[in-house]
# Entry
Amino acid sequence: MVESAKPVPPIWCPGCGDFGVLAAVKKAALEIKIPPHDLVLVGGIGCSGSIHNFLEINGIHALHGRLLAQAVGVKLANPALTVVAAGGDGDGYAIGMGHFIHSFKKNVSIVYIAMNNETYGLTKGQPSPTSQIGFEGNIERPFDAILTALSIPAPNLIARTFSGDPKTMIQVLTEALRFTREGRGYAFIEDLSPCVTYNDTYKLWREKVLDVSKVEGYDPSDRKAMFRICLETMEAGRIPIGVMHRPKETTVEGLETKLLNGAAGPARSDISLEPNRAAYQKLLAALS
Amino acid sequence: MTTPAAKPAPIPADSEPGANRRAPSLTDVCVMIGGQGGDGTLTVSDLLGRYFRKRGLYVYTSRNVLSRIRGGHADASVRGSRDPIAAVKPDVDVLVAFDEQAVEIGRSELAPHGYILYDSTSFKSEVPNATGFPFATLVGGALGQPIFKNTAAYGALSVVFGFDPVGTRAVIEERFKRRGGEALEKNLKALEIGRKAASEVPGLADRYRIADGDAHDFIMTTGNQAVALGFVVGGGRFFAGYPITPATEIMEYLQQYLPPLHGVVRQAEDELAAVNMIIGAAYAGARVMTSTSGPGLSLMTEGIGHAGAAEIPIVVADCARVGPSTGQPTRHEQSDLSHLANLGHGEYPRFILAPGTPEDCFDITIEALNLAERWRLPVLLLLDQALCQNNTTSRRFDLTKASVDRGARLSGEQVAALTQYKAYAFSETGRSAYAPPGTPGVWAEITGNEHDEWGHVSVNPVNRVRMMKKRMEKMVRARDELPAGHLFGPPEAKVGLIGYGSTFGPIREAQAILAARGTATRFFQPRTLYPVPAHELDPFLKSVDVAYVVEHNYTGQFARLIRETVPWHHAKIRSITKYDGSNFRAPQIIAEIPEVA
# Structure
């Protein structure tokens, strides 16, 4: 057995919602039996983005906001890897917003967990894109990632979980990992993960979350119905959680499958000269 | 003919004995074609280039287009020469103008013996040595579509230069055979319309003749195409980019070349995504590249620094254009070097490589991929608009010189023999072996934060110093592996010239002109710009009394870097700069050298 990097103790404050995500990743990976060398965790910048340091897997610490671009690169280069990107709401919805929107239309088979605590915790509590009006002087309206995700017509798996409900989180994450491992496309999970130091919303969110699967007319394959359910839930002052979109067909829609069509991928190709010489000669001979 | 022909001007005496005395045989000819964007100036340039090649001439084309799809002044020039050339000819022999503005712009570059053919459909020119043909009217009347006027102009040119009719026609067939049918047929008709019109003007036929050359086993290509092919042959299998002039063609060529080899090309949502996608793919173990220009490079700066800190092998091609900001997107400059040398906040190692010709682009791109993986760092290819886009004759790319060296990459068996796998292990060589994710039995942390050998975040000052040295010393340790520069001219010459990228062509031509006058010069063409090759510059500068650094920017960026690197030669170093958006003509360089001018 070769000795590899060992996990380090989490840097998070006791009670941080991110512990819930860490536990869920461990349980789900164990449940599906993903070997550590095949699992890649791409971390963002912020408290949540350090999650890869606390697991015995491949971790890459991306730049602030760029974790999705890097995660897409990893998966397209080696589609056999299970790729999870994990970061915070500032990372994903502010500095990384361009990549966030495009992640849905790209539909690469990776899991993205955005840990939303409605604040920038690591820099000590500034308002984030999801902060409520009035939080630390915030006068901008909060951004809603689920409504945004639903607005992009792509066969993604979309869900919201709550760190105060670990059972559902493990269940959803297990489904998301399976979904991406089957090459079905992109899985986005927003986890409500309270910051106990700068924005302790545990109690408030526990009261406000509403499991949408219990709402009449719930059908995650019906984008229109889910949009309506989410909007109505929000208008009623509650926070919708659960699986928000799940494509009806079990087709393999992941971009990596479309691009590579069963080939091993750029990272595992034999790029030595000999096996490719004939192809190269043909390319060069076409020049005139 | 509706426009009366102007009386042809006197023609210089023929230099070749036995030739038609009325037709001087040009061994170096340049035709400029100007008009509005969409007039098809590039097509005429392409057709002429093809014909020149049939005659065994070396060809160099350049273009001057605006950053818009249609309209606005655009011109193209094509040069054919019996000698190897890689630069724009200092003057134009024949100008083809589709509008009045093109006459005015082109006239300033016309040789004293030069001549102008213009489309008189909408204006009449009073300039001497010009004949107007209503190309658009003639073609529009016969074919119903005036757009074929450019092929008619090519037809008129073929008469003026006395091209053989079979070869002239064959060029049209080559160019349009793929589109076939109507396009080919109409172009052939337009050709004949142009030929007939020119033949009817007394004294115009065979006004010039072009000499035959012996450059037969050559291809026509651009630096951008060569970089794309070098990437493929060097094992590159993942490319992400964002469209930007003058880099876009690299992505477009790779969209053709890579999918059949199961490679991936993605057009990203912006340059931030492009560089981070290749970082992810390189981390996963693929050979990667992105290409961009000024504004895109600014955005990629963040990601390139990350690759430097996290030791991720990436190649970034910078196809430099006029800056700063949006600058002049379609024009030529070399003003990114200072930025590349200092790219990003903090300090990290990088290699900046600068090929001078398309053939060199091919070789250096392959080497860049090897160096990036061997040393686990970003390698920057510094190109420029002229090198990237000017279509030119080139020797065939040489596959036998190519090699793929995966450097520090660990195989599964090598990993199994280890007791520990540390992605950032300290070693004698300064390089750490790497096992990409998916290698059975091992995993690692990869990060742009300062880290220890395992990749764990570390603020330990002793570790920080060791890690900084490990990374920064790559630039010293790799010295002998970096592409060596080339020297041209006799070693005893006392006037030195230094230039990189596309200045290679005009500098070589300036040397040839000076040599013909009996003045020897010595030219050092560095192919690695950073780390600045002191070991090459020092002996070169010792051997000369004065060295002119020829570059396309205002501040003399490379001259400054050289002075900083070999300060004891400070007094010998002079700058020749040009930053008007066009590339050097050989006489412009000579005029700046008081010792020889």
In short: DSSP finds ten helices and ten strands in chain A. The domain at 18-262 of chain A is CATH 3.40.50.970 (Rossmann fold). Chain A has one domain: 18-262. Chain A touches chain B through 63 residues (CB under 8 Å).
